[in-house]
Fold this sequence. Notes:
single chain, alpha/beta, Rossmann fold, 3 domains, eight-stranded mixed beta sheet, three-stranded antiparallel beta sheet, elongated
Amino acid sequence: MNRDNTKYSSYWLRDGLFDDDDSLDLNPIESKHNNLMALASYKKSIGNFVDIVTGEHIPVTFSVRGDSYTDGKSVVISSKMDDKDFDSTVGLALHEGSHIKLTDFNTLDTINNNIGLVVGKDYITHLMDKHNMTEWDCQNWVSKVVKDLLNVIEDRRIDYYIYSTSPGYKGYYHAMYDKYFNSKIVDKGLQSSEYRDNDWESYMFRIINITNKNRDLDALPMLRSVWNLMDLKNIDMIKDTNGSLVLASQIFKVIENSLPPSEKPIQSPNQKNDGECDGEGDSDEQSEGSGNGGGGDNSETNGTDNTEGNGGESKDGSNGTDDSKGDAEGDDVKSGSRGSYNPNGAGGSGSDSQITDEKTHCSEGNGKLSDRQKKQLDNAIEKQKKFQNGDIQKKKVSKTESKKMETLDKSGVEEKLAGKDYHNPSYYRNSKQTPVMLVKNYTKQLADSGMISMLSTYSWSVDRNSEAINKGIILGTVLGKKLKLRNEERSLVTPRMKNGKIAGRLLHELGMGNVQIFDQISINKHNPALVHISIDASSSMGGSKWKQTQTSAVAIAKAASMTSNLDVVISYRSIQHDGNTQPLMLIAYDSRKDKFSKIQQLFKYLNPCGTTPEGLCFETVLDDIIKTNKGVDSYFINFSDGWPGFSNRDIDYGGNAAVEHTASQVKKIQQAGVKVLSYFVYDGYEGGIENFKRMYGKSATSVDCTNLMALTKTLNKLFQ
């Protein structure tokens, strides 16, 4: 992966994801689940960024075939993400999210429905006469132009707000503007003789790129006055979308009053071309609206991080109509005061001669563009317009793929790296950390999806598991009655005290002057307890071992449901067969949030498969086990048949190295104050018990865990 293209995302992007394919471009027929996992992971990460920056939970979704717009309540991102696009994708998501938080989309209704209120009815009448237009055509045209101006101003306001409140995320905005706004052809176009005609198309090109370091504020009449109105000092004063609309109306009048009467019907620039620009999306993509859309504020990307030199008031209070164009960064552009615009005039403070001065001092540019360059510039401008209007094209996923990713999201599926301290000297190449798939919320939807190797809805599998589960419920009911220890309360009575509860048996001693006739009673209750049951779900655990283990785990969970202050978490560890095979840790049940009926409904779909990534899976949930140890008695019960083993392109996990790594993870659990009990599951052969004891030490016990008496004995011993 080219980290130069992901310098801001590199800390959360997983190494190696694009080693085989430098893009994630889903095909609804051929897509792999690991791609879905990756996309789901990126969506979650981007969603976290949006939540942090906006301070609100704003849903982030992928563009889906059949949808053509966003409702202004969620951020829509593209499913086509490669190593060149991560930073810009994050930037765009932050941009759209900030609009959802800060932009009042009802303001657009005001423009559409009552433009006369915005610019003034008299001014509409004036324009009708000036351009020989009907009232309907005039209102429609003014609405479109004012809306275009509002988009630019609102984007500048929103982005400046994010720069000010969340400066650590500027880099993502830099990447976004580099992709959608900054290009050599735009730089060249700004300096050329193109778009210098006194018309709205030229003005909109110059205004959209007004923060570009190659801007020419003398390219058009009154363009410098527009710059003055849009400087950061003025933008900082705007507190809401209505304020942006007021400024858009002012700028509209400044420009319009400098334009000659039109000789032909006027069109808004954005009416002219709806075609797809070069390099933007696939041919089958539809445009995705994002409410107000994006903006062209690139002041930060061009090094103008502060408000100085971005317009603002000059020392002499002039309106900045000198002949200076400013340096490349705009630091020499000294503008007029905030109140320099006369809403009843042509814009800018001062006399008519000053206005005329600005109109007559327009530059001619640095030469013409070739036909090829003109076409490139037109494509670049179209791309900017699409961004400005929220029409950025986004690669869509099918509804089927979307549903699968929704399933992954609701199941809390994520990846965690494991194997940090693992080293296998016998492996022919260096091992590195490998991602472990962690499922935090087992759902029926996930079982039905067919995405998880451990889960099967085939009837033969369901029937076999159902038998073991039902047996576990019966055993658990009996076990719950035998595990009385957690329910028992111990009362300690201290007699002959000066206060407490009067002891009737001692009342007669009052006559003898004895006042110590009270009993003090203290009740000792057990602390709340949490038991984490982790089950080896590798292929070697099939058959009778699996039935035994399922029955035992269900029995413990059932007994716990009958016992006060005792919660149970049940997890299964195996591997996920998909692309680069990876360890899998599935949290199947958590009594703190799940009803016991979940075991009856969903455990029947669990099946052993694959190899045994023992310690890697323990490492994945280690932090959660340690965190839940606070304020409770914490226990870790492990079911396994012994020897660990796993291999993929990242790691060769096996032999003594895997045994030692597993033992180190168990030791970390114990050092955190968690009591460990490891059941060695066997089917008549105990040959692996020695290696089992190497991993689990004194916590290891060989027991027929379906033997109720043996199970009760070991559990009571553990709880004591």
